[in-house]
## 1
Amino acid sequence: MFLSVLIVLVSAYLAARNLLTPITDLKNALNKVAEGDLTSDLSSTRVDEIGLLNQEFSHMLDGMRERKKLASLHRKVLTLVKRELASRDLIWVFLQRFWKTL
């Protein structure tokens, strides 16, 4: 009797740990993403719903990283365009003043 209860308790503990560990890992990764850290990576070989959830999380994170790269690239392009336009304005002002002196 005691042995069967012990086996049931150990089995229940292992099953709960097997289920809760990946969920806790996912929760921790989500918290990091919420703080702005996009370096989290969940690799899972599970073929159940938790494995599917981890795959979808990784796919979402890849998309967020790509959008962050694009936003950074857009900022760089806009900065270059702004500098170019500012330099053209300076040249135009210089030419106007030069023509006035003639």
## 2
Amino acid sequence: MDECPLCMEELDVTDKATLYCQCEYQICAFCWQQLHDNAAKDNTIAKCPNCRTPYDKDNIRMLEIDQEEYVECVQTPGGWGLAVGCADAFW
């Protein structure tokens, strides 16, 4: 199980496929947004917690989503978004 190093929550399928920084440090979408929100409040630029490079929204890379994990999320009883790790599968 992969966890976000900031909040320690499980990384969902899209978190695992999203690279926000060139150093490929993986965090969840919630923490990435929190970094941007906090930087905006301080009138600064959000930076990667690992390498301190300023985030550039134009340089976000998406890797191929693991199809088995995707199918597991979609087929969870109760519908999309209720499985652990699938809450933010597509934003």
## 3
Amino acid sequence: MITTLVFAVTVARVGLVALIAERNIVLAGNIRRACEYAEQQEREAGQDDKLDASTEVPAPAVLAVLGMLHLGGVREILESESGG
């Protein structure tokens, strides 16, 4: 009985870790794309002829709300992709 319980907990943990790791990759990719899109929008806004020099365009920002289980993994992925 105890052996079966330990085995079930171990299998569940391995599955959870794999699921979180896979989800971290997806989340980091989506955050990266959002940042690239924000940078593109900022460049396009700077080239817009309708804006005069006195018009200030706020810098774009990307806000990602993550659960605690994803913070470390997503941070590692984003930092490794950016070379930081």
